[in-house]
């Protein structure tokens, strides 16, 4: 998956032979400088530019162009070189843009020779600059990384070179511009896509496999033609969406991912046909399968979406990757829309300020006309951005409508018909649905929130008043809903694991959740009756703490089979209701221990609690709360994605009112547990 960087962000490089692609809205010249461990550039011989396009390990273009391909071989760089700075500069002379702010924001991509995109960065926020440091490749502790720099100079290339410590900056800048103006084109060839490697079993592996996915097996022509990449949303850093321009403007441009949505030719990255549709999907992912030629629509419309149309060894894995691909696509297209609105607002404000600075603009019809024109331009920009967003939402909605019915039980909502034909699985699932996510701009579109199994973090269902909304102001209702969500989650975990592979235990010190736990208790799927009172709390915690200690010692000693016969090796979910009621200091310490050490050895925690109830412990329990993933029993926009930082609204996966599906599923689980025992 491509890392979209924001200014100052870095990203590790997994390749040493690289191609750096540069796309700009106007012809620019591109070059690179080598720096030592301290960043010092030791003379003009360490600068690759149109007049001297080749250095050891680097080759750049010989003239100005809207698109450049710089070749970099990190292993071939001089031993003293620890840094490669890629710079861009506007040409001098008649017809050249006066500043970067007057053209489309330059877009850079770092990729391997096989075409795998490693990182991208769009140089946003440029205004009066005429030369800019775009990217920096640097070596740190033997490993190479790329950093998004975006540092510009209004005084041009001379100032940029002088800032790097070059005494001959003026002469070198003049020579660079002269060479770029008269030098022949040196367009580096586009690397050919290497055939996918074969493993020993003859299966074809994917060049762009998502995280935790090392290979793919295409099952049909459309799957083999599809190039899809997805990843779970809680394990990467959050880049800012890249930026691109609105058409026909000479001002700083609005933010769009990778391409200009209105004029694909402006940035040099889009199709040459001005009527072509622009693809806003995550790099490397297409939401629709590529149909065989005979099945293609005659009017050029995309083929209907296909469930499981993503990379993966199995249908389960392909659906998992497809769901998170949809999540990424929704995040990015929404970020593009929000950035466009932000740009339109800032442009409106700037134009109104300019109108007010002129005496003639303050009074009379001229000023009123200027203000009306500014508002009209703002409305037009927002309408164009909304049209792009609506197009993408319609595409994602169509994909969701075919994906949701195809989800397996571990991923499906409780209203999915798959539960009516439920049978106990023979293998554990790779992920679990915790609920749904949506954004304000796309309220009808829900994306399943999937997390990988086994759970790496405990869960906390917030039953406090902070989670209340206008529809649920009563704390009693909130606690009841939180318990229902906990039971539904426990039932799902039991249902999607083979018989005997997963067990649920409950601590309910005051017995306040007896009614909510009834579906678990009546069907007999609990490992033991809910523990009540201080003695019950102590007994359960001692038992689980002992299990964690013994399993850790067995694993470290390399003898997992030496566990005592009374140790249950099944994964455990401990539900704690109304924490910290019924917990003394020793019990609190044990619970924190289970939260920290339990997940690695199969003990997971689900807390149903109001944090305010634990205020008496002061900051002692802060690490516990921070270690848990907070969920709510009512919709709440408290989850942030790692790409653009949207505040996603989370909704729990609850059982529809009046449905008996959980009782039916738990009855089937109980029958299989009886056979297993």
What is the structural class?
Answer: alpha+beta
Q: Sketch the major β-sheet.
A: 12 strands, mixed
N- to C-terminal distance: 45 Å
Strand content: 15-25%
Dominant shape: elongated
Q: How many DSSP E strands?
A: 21
Helix content: 25-40%
CA gyration radius, whole angstroms:
29 Å
Averaged pLDDT, please? 80
> Total helix count?
12
Key traits:
five-stranded parallel β-sheet, 677 residues, alpha+beta
Tell me about this structure.
This protein has 677 residues and is α+β, with helices and mostly antiparallel strands. It is built from twelve helices and 21 strands. Helix 9 runs parallel beside helix 10. 43% of the residues are buried. About 17% of the residues have low confidence.
Task: Describe the structure in brief.
The longest helix is centred in the middle third of the chain and has 43 residues, at 315-357. The protein has 677 residues and is α+β, with helices and mostly antiparallel strands. It contains twelve helices and 21 strands.
Secondary-structure blueprint:
Layout: E1 3-5, E2 10-12, E3 17-35, E4 47-48, E5 54-55, E6 58-59, E7 65-73, E8 83-89, E9 107-112, E10 117-122, E11 131-140, E12 143-153, H1 157-163, H2 169-182, H3 221-225, H4 315-357, H5 359-362, H6 364-403, E13 431-438, E14 447-452, E15 458-462, H7 475-496, E16 502-507, H8 518-523, H9 533-556, E17 571-579, H10 585-597, E18 603-609, H11 622-627, E19 628-631, E20 636-640, E21 647-652, H12 661-676
Parallel strand pairs: 1-10, 15-18, 15-19, 16-17, 17-18
Antiparallel strand pairs: 2-12, 3-4, 3-7, 3-8, 3-9, 5-6, 6-7, 8-11, 9-10, 11-12, 13-14, 13-21, 20-21
Helix pairs in contact: 1-2, 4-6, 7-12, 9-10
């Amino acid at each position: 998956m491509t890392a979209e960087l924001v200014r100052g962000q870095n990203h590790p490089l997994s390749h040493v032979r690289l191609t750096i692609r540069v796309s700009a809205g106007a012809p620019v010249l591109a070059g690179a400088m080598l720096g030592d461990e301290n960043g010092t550039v030791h003379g003009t011989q360490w600068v690759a530019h149109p007049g001297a396009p080749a250095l050891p390990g680097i080759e750049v273009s010989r003239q100005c162009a809207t698109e450049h391909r710089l070749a970099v071989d990190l292993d071939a760089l001089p031993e003293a070189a620890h840094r490669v700075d890629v710079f861009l500069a506007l040409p001098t002379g008649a017809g050249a843009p006066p500043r970067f702010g007057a053209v489309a924001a330059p877009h850079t991509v770092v990729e391997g020779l096989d075409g795998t995109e490693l990182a991208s960065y769009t140089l946003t926020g440029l205004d009066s600059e005429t030369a800019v440091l775009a990217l920096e490749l640097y070596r740190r502790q033997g490993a190479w990384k790329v950093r998004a720099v975006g540092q510009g100079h209004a005084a041009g290339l001379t100032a940029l070179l002088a800032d790097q410590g070059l005494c001959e900056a003026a002469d070198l800048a003049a020579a660079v511009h002269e060479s770029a103006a008269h030098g022949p084109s040196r367009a580096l060839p586009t690397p050919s896509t290497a055939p996918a490697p074969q493993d020993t079993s003859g299966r074809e592996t994917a060049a762009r496999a998502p995280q935790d996915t090392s290979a793919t097996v295409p099952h049909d022509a459309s799957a083999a033609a599809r190039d899809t990449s997805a990843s779970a949303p809680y394990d990467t850093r959050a880049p800012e969406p890249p930026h691109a321009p609105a058409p026909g403007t000479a001002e700083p441009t609005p933010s769009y991912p990778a391409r200009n949505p209105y004029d694909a030719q402006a940035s040099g990255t889009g199709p040459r046909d001005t009527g072509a549709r622009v693809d806003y999907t995550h790099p490397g992912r297409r939401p629709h399968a590529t149909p065989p030629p005979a099945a293609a629509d005659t009017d050029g419309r995309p083929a209907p979406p296909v469930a499981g149309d993503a990379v993966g060894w199995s249908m389960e894995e392909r659906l998992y990757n497809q769901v998170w691909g949809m999540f990424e696509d929704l995040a990015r297209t929404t970020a593009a829309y929000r950035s466009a609105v932000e740009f339109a607002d800032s442009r409106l404000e700037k134009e109104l300020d300019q109108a007010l600075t002129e005496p003639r603009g303050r009074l009379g019809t001229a000023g009123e006309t200027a203000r009306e024109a500014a508002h009209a331009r703002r409305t037009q920009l927002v309408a164009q951005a909304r049209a792009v967003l609506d197009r993408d939402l319609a595409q994602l909605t169509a994909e969701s409508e075919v994906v949701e019915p195809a989800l397996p039980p571990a991923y499906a909502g409780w209203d999915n018909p798959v539960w009516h034909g439920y049978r106990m699985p023979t293998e554990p699932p790779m992920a679990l649905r915790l609920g749904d996510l949506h954004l304000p701009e796309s309220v009808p579109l829900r994306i399943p929130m999937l997390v990988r199994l086994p759970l790496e973090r405990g869960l906390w269902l917030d039953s406090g008043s902070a989670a209340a909304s206008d529809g649920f102001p009563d704390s009693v209702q909130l606690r009841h809903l939180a318990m229902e969500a906990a039971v539904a989650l426990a039932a799902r975990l039991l249902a999607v694991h083979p018989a005997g592979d997963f067990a649920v235990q409950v601590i309910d010190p005051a017995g306040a959740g007896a009614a909510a736990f009834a579906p678990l208790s009546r069907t007999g799927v609990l490992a033991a009756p809910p523990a009540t009172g201080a003695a019950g709390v102590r007994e359960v915690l001692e038992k689980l703490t002992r299990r964690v200690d013994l399993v850790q010692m067995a694993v470290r000693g390399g003898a997992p089979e030496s566990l005592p016969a009374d140790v249950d090796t099944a994964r455990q979910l401990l539900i704690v209701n109304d924490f910290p009621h019924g917990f003394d200091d020793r019990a609190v310490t044990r619970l924190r221990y289970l939260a920290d050490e339990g997940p690695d050895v199969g003990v997971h925690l689900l807390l149903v609690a109001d944090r305010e109830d634990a205020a008496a412990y002061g900051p002692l329990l802060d690490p516990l709360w921070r270690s848990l993933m907070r969920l709510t029993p009512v919709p709440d926009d408290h989850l942030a994605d790692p790409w653009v930082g949207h505040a996603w609204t989370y909704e729990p996966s609850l059982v529809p009112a009046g449905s008996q599906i959980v009782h039916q599923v738990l009855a089937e689980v109980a029958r299989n547990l009886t056979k297993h025992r």
